[in-house]
Specification:
The structure is a single chain. This protein is mostly helical. It has a domain of about 80 residues. About 65% of the residues lie in helices and about 0% in strands. The protein contains twelve helices and no strands. The longest helix has 15 residues. The relative contact order is 0.08.
């Protein structure tokens, strides 16, 4: 099948009504990778509603030529659709390419969409060089107290990954100015001391 036809066939398969069919299409794309699949896979990442299919789309992307995928994902970080940004960040975390670090901005870390922010926290913590850990921790603590328990847990795990560099900024956040922020800071410090501990807020 000619290259344009392969890409078109994948694009159509990824729009199937049943999630199981879309999952199979993404699995097949990753099992038999082809450079022409890049655009259909990236496009579907922005709109796919099923978590498991999105995860398979990410895996399929990691099977394609690395530099092409990397460049395309960087462009997607400025997409208007929040899911496009969050999936691009998530896939960059799976690539583990340190070249992505400079592209993760404060706007991503403080994105109004919680899924974009969570993906940015996780990806930044994994890719930041050692010398950037303190500055990154300073940005992340600004988000303490944000969102529901899952959002807070995600932020704490990112801070835990930064290790000792996060201790002083997190301690400074427990300044009594906001109850939820202080509780989140204390819960994060407990995780830094014992990363295997269960994440719980005081009084919960």
């Amino acid at each position: 099948m000619p290259v344009p036809e392969r890409a078109a066939a994948l694009s159509q398969a990824l729009r199937a009504e049943e999630a199981s069919d879309r999952l199979q299409a993404a699995l097949t794309a990753g099992t038999h990778p082809d450079a022409s699949y890049l655009e259909p896979l990236v496009a579907r990442c922005a709109v796919e509603p099923d978590f498991y299919v999105r995860d398979m789309l990410t895996w399929a992307l990691t099977r394609l030529p690395r530099d092409a995928v990397f460049d395309r994902l960087l462009a997607e970080l400025s997409a208007e659709v929040p899911q496009a940004r969050s999936q691009a960040l998530h896939t960059l975390s799976k690539l583990g390419d340190p070249r992505a670090w400079p592209a993760i901005t404060a706007e991503h870390l403080h994105d109004s969409d919680p899924e974009v922010a969570r993906a940015a926290w996780r990806t930044a913590a994994g890719l930041a060089p050692d010398e950037a850990h303190s500055a990154l921790a300073g940005e992340l603590v600004l988000e303490l107290g944000r969102g529901d328990i899952e959002v807070m847990r995600s932020l704490s795990r990112a801070l835990v990954e930064l290790g000792e560099a996060a201790i002083a900024p997190v301690r400074g956040a427990d300044d009594g100015s906001a109850l939820q922020r202080a509780r989140h800071a204390r819960a994060t410090l407990r995780l830094i001391e014992d990363p295997e501990a269960t994440f719980t807020l005081d009084g919960v």
